[in-house]
Amino acid sequence: MASEDVKATESAVSTIVNLAEEAKLAREGVKAPSYDVLSICKSLVAGGVAGGVSRTAVAPLERLKILLQVQNPHNIKYNGTVQGLKYIWGTEGFRGLFKGNGANCARIVPNSAVKFFSYEQASKGIMYLYQQHTGNEDAQLTPLLRLGAGACAGIIAMSATYPMDMARGRLTVQTERSPYQYKGMFHALSTVLREEGPRALYKGWLPSVIGVIPYVGLNFAAYESLKDWLIKSKPFGLVEDSELSVMTRLACGAAAGNCWTNCCLPS
């Protein structure tokens, strides 16, 4: 009985210590490890799903764009968006509109997951440093700081998933005369790794990263700034509370993407 009492006492003391430690972490604003893991998983899954859904939604346009870029100028099959989509539908059916989308999603889903998670963490880190620097605990990120957080996210996401982007590029440009005939993305990755070594997986990494810095940075900066403006100014009665509707968020994302296209891409 004595030993059972001792065990019960030790268990009670251990429980009290754990509760006290959790309370201390809560007061200091530090999340418990289990909550951190759950939060990370949620962020990664949300970013991955968002990337896959968005890529699938525009897959027909993405395929048509590539076909327009590589078609023979002496044998025009695709002449404009509407005609091109109709031609693909008529010759290849519904599945033809989404050909190659699986390979695209295999690259975009992890890229989007890492990108959104990295932006979230970079924003928190930059905000903490900014608040410490200004001495204002209520300070929020400026558009320039959001651009910096977005650029960090773009670099991390591009670096983490660049081998897939490289493999997609080789699959896109390969012909019957290519030295290697890749059957798919994972076959391309394994072949490059075996025949050319690990460094070959990152050929062209630097120009890709340089290009993605303004792209992702401006996207996130424009999107977050537009959201804040809508919530604070409530123009035309579009926003009634502190939460934006799904359609409003989609409109913000579209506007942010259009801002990047108009500002940074050549006409």
UniProtKB/TrEMBL annotation:
SUPFAM superfamilies membership: Mitochondrial carrier
Main localization category: membrane
Entry coiled-coil feature ranges: none
Entry keyword annotation includes Transmembrane: yes
Cell location: Membrane
Residue stretches of each Solcar repeat: 38-125, 141-229
InterPro entries linked to this entry: MCP, MCP_dom_sf, MCP_transmembrane
Gene3D superfamilies: Mitochondrial carrier domain
Membrane topology according to the record: Multi-pass membrane protein
Matching PROSITE patterns: SOLCAR
Keyword Transmembrane in record: yes
Keyword annotations: Membrane, Repeat, Transmembrane, Transport
Similarity comment: Belongs to the mitochondrial carrier (TC 2.A.29) family.
PANTHER family in alphabetical order: SOLUTE CARRIER FAMILY 25
Full protein name: Mitochondrial adenine nucleotide transporter ADNT1
Organism listed in the record: Hibiscus sabdariffa (roselle)
